[in-house]
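ARCHIVE CARD
SHELF: 3
SLOT: left
DATA:
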Amino acid sequence: MVEYRKKSSLFINKLNNLRIKQKLALIQIFCVLLPLLITDSVIVLLIVDEEKRATVQEMDNIAESVKYTVSSSIDNALLLMNNIYTNRFVNEFLNMEFTSPGDYYDKYTDFIKDSLYAVGVSSNRYNAVIYGDNDGIVNGGYFQRLEMIENAWWYDEFLENDKGVTIFSDYVNMGANNTRTISIVRHLDHYNKGKGKSVLKIDLDYSGMAMDIVNGRNSAIFYVCDGDRILFSNEGKGGRHMPFENISEQLISKAGIHNTINIYKKTWDIYVMTPKVDSKAVLLKNAPLIGSLICVNVILPFLVMGLINRSFTQRISELDKVFGDEGADELKQLPEVQGNDEISALMASYNRMAHRINELIEKEYKNRLRSQEIDIARQNAELLALHSQINPHFLFNALESIRMHSVLKKEFETADMVQKLALMERQNVDWGDDMVCLRDEVEFVEAYLELQKYRFGAKLSYDINVDEECLDYRLPKLSLVTFVENACVHGMENKTLGSWIFVRIYKQDDMLTVEIEDTGHGMNEEQSRIILEEMRNVSLDKLKESSHVGILNAALRLKMASRDKVVFEIDSEAWAGTMITIRFPLDELTKINKTEQT
C-alpha cells in the first residue's frame, strides 16, 4: 500500500509538471482513442450477437403466432361443441321415439326449424355430426346412427381413453378423395349425467387451418406435430390429400425453438428451425457504419482537441492574471468575457462575485440591519393594530349600565348574564400578554357557550373534548373563541331546529390539531373556498377590506404566532354543517412553566 502511494504521488507530480496541451493529448489517447477502438470492437460483436438474438426472438414470435392460430381454430370448435353439448333441443331429439323413417324425417324437420340448430352449426370451417344410439335415427344430415362408427379406430381409442373431450388427427376416405382431418370428439351426456352413449364429432377444415398457419409470412421453417406426425408446416410437407409425414429426430435436433399446444390432455409440438446467421454478411451490411466510426474516431478528435486546447489555455491565462493582482480595497473585474461555455460562465461569475463583494463591503451590512429593524417595527405595529380591534374597553361601562337597568326591572336572569359577560371580558381583554395557555382559552370558550345557552336554550348543545397533554400549550388570546362564536352566529342563529357545536383538541403527527364543528346551516363549495383562501392569505391590509373581520383577525394572529406555519382547512356542506380544522407544528408552540401555573 505504501509503495502504491509513492508511485501514484510520483505520477501525479509528473502530471502537474505537464502543460495543458500535453495533458489534453494524453486525454485524447487514453480517454478517447483507445476506448473508442475497444468500443468499436465491442460494437461489431454486439451487432453480430444482436442479429442472433433478433433471430431467436423472431423464431419465438413465429412459435407464438402458430400456437395462437392453431389454438384459436380449436377453441372456436370447442365453443361450438359446448353449445351443442348443452343444447336441450338436441338432447330431446336424440331421446324421441321414431315409429318410421317418415316419422323421423318429420320430427327432424321440426327440430331443425324450431331449434335453429342448422344456423348454429353451419360453418365452412367446421362439420358437426352427432352419432346417436337411438335405433330410429336415419343416417344423413347432422345425425347418424352410432353403429356407423363402432369399428372406427378413433372411436375405439376414444372409448379406451375415456378423456371426455378428445382430439384426433387422421387421413381418411371422404367421398371421392382421401383427405387429412382434425377432429374433436365427446359424449353427449350433459342431461343424463355421464350415461349417454351418443357421440358428437366435429371435423375442422384442415385446408383453412393450414392456410391460416402457413400464410403468416414467417421467415423460418416450422412444423406442428402430433407425436412424430407432421400436421402442418410451411415447408410444403404434403397437401390436404396427401398422407401425413413423420418428423425425424435429426430434424428435431435442428429446432431452435420448441413450444407446445395443450388441448384436453393432448399435446401438439411446435418446432421452429434455426436459420443460419452469416457473420460476414452482417459485417458487410454494416461496413459503411463501421468504417465511418473508425475515421471519425481517429481524425476528428485530433482536429477538435487542438481547437479546445487553444480555447482553454488563452482564457485560463486571463483568469490567472486577474487572480494574481492584489487590490487593497476591491476586486478587479475582467475587461472582456468571450464565449458562452463553462469557462466563460466562470469568468462572468467572477465578475458578478467581484461586483457583489465590493457592493457588500459598502452597503450590504448596513442595509440588512436597517431592513431588519423596519421589519420588526412593522410586525409590532400590526400586532398593536390587531389588539385594538378586539380590545373594546368602552364596552364595560355599557354592560354595567345594562345590568343595573335589568336589576331595577327585576330581570335578574338578564342581569346575571350581563354580569358574567362583563367579568369574562375584563378577564380576557387585558393585552399585557397576547399568548395564553390553552387551558384558559378552553375555559373562556366554555363560558362563552354557557352564555349562548341562555340565549338559545335547548336549541344549542355543545361538547368540548381536549387531550390533557395539550392544555399547557400557548396560543394567541381569544383566537379559538372567535371561531366558536362564528359557528354560533352564522351556523345556527336562523335555524329552527337544535344544533350542536363540537370542540376537539388533540395531538397528531407532531401537530396540535383543533377542530371546531357545528351542525348549522353550512356553506356551499364556492363560499368555503373563498373563506379558506382569505384565511390562508390574510394580511393586515386585506383584513381592513374584508367582511369576515373576526375569523380573519384570529387567523392572522395565529399565522404570526406560528411564523406562518399554521394550516387551515374548511369542510362544509350546505344545510348540514361546517368543520374548521386548525393545525400547529408543535415545535412552533411553547408551554407554560410551573411558576406560571402557580
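SLOT: right
DATA:
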Amino acid sequence: MKSITIDRAFFGLLTVASLTSAGCYAPSDERGSSDTDAMDAGSDGESPLSGLDDGDPSDDESGEEGETGGTGDDDNDDDPMPEPMEGNALVRVIHGAPDAPAVDIYVEGSDEPVITDLAYTETSDWLEVPAGAYNFQVRVAGGSPLDIPIYETGELTLPEGAAVSALAAGLLDTMGNNGFRAIPLVEGWDSETLGQARVRIVHAGSDAPAVDIDVGADGEIEIEAVTRFSETGAGGVSLPAEVALRIGIAVDGDLVTTFTTPELPDGGEVIIIATGLLGKLAREDDGFGLLAVGPQGTIGFIKQDPEIIALHASPDAPEVDLCAGDTLLASHLTFGGMQRAQVSPGNYEVALYPSPSNCGGTAAVVDSTGELEAGQRYLLLATGELSPVAGEPPAQIVAFQEHFTLDMEDDAVLRLVHGAPAPEVDVGVVTGAMIEEGNVLAVGLKWPNVTDEIPLQPLTYQLGFAAAGQATPLLPIVDFHVPAEAGVRGWVVAAGDLTPEANEESFRLMMVDTSTAPWSVTELMPNSAG
C-alpha cells in the first residue's frame, strides 16, 4: 500500500471514512472479503488477545472494572483486513484522547454524521472512500448538526490506495506540547517472522515525558527515548509470540511502571498505544494504560500491573524480606518500613524471611495474596507475632486492595486496620476522656481486619481504642491524636504490642497516606495508656 503524509487532525481523516455511515459508501467489511491476511484468532476461534478489557477502561468507585464497550469489529479478529478497490482508500479512527468526549463526525455541509458516538479507547470500522479532498467537522456526540464543531480539519486529501489509522491524541482543552492532535498511522508492516508478533508502539501519553521501553521489565532498555506523540515505525517491532510479556516504561533509565500483555499471536500485527495520564490512578478512566488495536479494531485496554506496597507491622519480627517465589518484593524491611513493587496480575504465595535471604531458606511464614488485579494497588501487611504467647495471633501476611472513593475531595477518608496482636476493639472519637455512642467509628474490629471507608471533615481527631463489647460511653484503653487533612485517603493501621517485651515494638498507629506519590507512612504514638 502507498505511503501517505497527513498533516491535519485525526478527525479529518476519520471523517473521510465516515462517508460510509452517511450512506454514500459502505464499510469495507460489507463490500466483501479480500486476500489480505489478518491476525488469526487461532483454531479455537477465540480472540487473539483474550483477557484484555474490551476497550472501556472505566471503573466504578470501588475500583471494579466497568462494562466494556469498544467499537470496531472487535468480535471478528479472525476476519481479514480489507484492501481498497481501485480509486479508493481505507481509513479508520482510534479515539485515544483521554479528555475528549464521545464524538460524531460530519462532512462539511451535511446534516447527518458519518461516524457516531465514538468514545475514548474505541476504534471505528475501516471505511472505504473515494480518494480525494474533504473537510470534516467534529461535534460532541448526540448534538445538533448546527452546533459549532469542537474541531475541523480543513481540506484534507486522502490518496488512492492508502490505509490509515487516524489516532486522536492529546488533550482537547489544552494548548501547546500536549494539546489535541492527530497521529496518522499508515499501514506498512514488515513481513512475517515465524514465532514472532509485530507490535507498533505509539507514545500518546499526554502528560508523559520521553520514555524508554524495557521488554521483559528486566532493566535492559530495548527502545530508547520514544518522545511524546511519536512511534516506533510502520514496520513494527518483533516480539516473541504466544507468551505473556512484561513491558516496562522507564524515564531516564528509571522504571516508572510495568504492564503484562496477554500472549501475542504468531504473525499478529498489533498497534499498542500508550495513552491516558500518568498523573491519574491506574484504575481511573483516564489513567495511563496501553490500548491494543488489531486489524479489526480495539482489542482491549491493558492496565498497569498491580502495585504492592509492603508494610512491616509485626512487633517481634526483625528486618525481613518478602518474596513471591524468587521475586524480591521488599528487602531489609524494618518495623514501620514500607516498600513498593509491581508484579503481573495473579495470585501469589508470599514468603517472609529474615534478612538477608536471597528469597531462599526456610520461610517464617507463607500466605496467599488472593487475586491481584491489573490497575489496582494493594497494602501488603506483615502482622502478628513470630513467637506468639498467651493467645497472641501468629505472623500473617494480608493484602488489602486500595479502592478509596475519589469523591468528597474536601474530606479525609480513612479505613481502620487492626494490625496489632490484640483482642477485638471498638474505635471512636474521644470527647471528655470517653467515647460517646454517636462518636463510635468501628464496633468489634478484629485482627487482621479492616473497616469500610470513614469520611471525616478535615480536623485533628482524638481517636480512642476500647475493649469490644462494652456499653457506651466507652473508656478507651489508649488514644491518639490523628490528623485528617482534606483530600487524604489512607489506612490507619494499629500495630505493635500493648504490653511489649524486650524484643517487641510498642503499640502505635501507622498512618498510610495513599493520596501521595509514592505512598507515605507516619507513625503516631499514643497520648496515654491505662
